[in-house]
Design brief:
Layout lengths: L8 H5 L3 H12 L12 H23 L8 H28 L8 H19 L1
Length: 127
């Protein structure tokens, strides 16, 4: 008598510790990947939010300008808000770093974003 064993999705997803480690190592080798040691509970939460933001951004790009998706105007507004939040967090990190005498270097891309945002606000206020 032969038993027909059906594999459920939950059973297929169970990976061994070695398989998980192999996946992590291969992911590190992928273009655009980052490895980071997190030292604080708040940093861990922020990292989880960042991971989900990055996944949502991938969906955002796929729906931008598509019928039933996100209009270019709405997309631009969402990305402006994301830039403002990122700049604000960077400025907070700079202030915190100054208080604890840690040398913070704002990423070059963020400095450029901040300059563009500042110019845009100045031009809007002169109109």
């Amino acid at each position: 008598m032969e038993k027909n064993i059906m594999e459920t999705p939950i059973q297929r997803q169970k990976l061994t510790k070695e398989e998980i480690l192999e996946r992590k190592i291969s992911m590190v080798k992928e273009r655009g990947s980052r490895v980071m040691k997190i030292n604080s509970p708040l940093g861990s939460i922020m990292f989880n939010v960042l991971r989900q933001f990055d996944q949502a951004y991938a969906h955002f790009k796929g729906q931008l300008g598509e019928p039933g998706g996100i209009s270019h105007e709405e997309g631009a507004a969402l990305m402006d808000e994301a830039r403002e939040i990122t700049i604000a967090f960077s400025e907070y990190t700079g202030n915190l770093s100054k208080k604890v005498r840690f040398k913070y270097f704002m990423p070059q891309e963020l400095q450029e974003m901040r300059q563009v945002a500042t110019k845009g606000k100045k031009m809007a206020s002169t109109d």
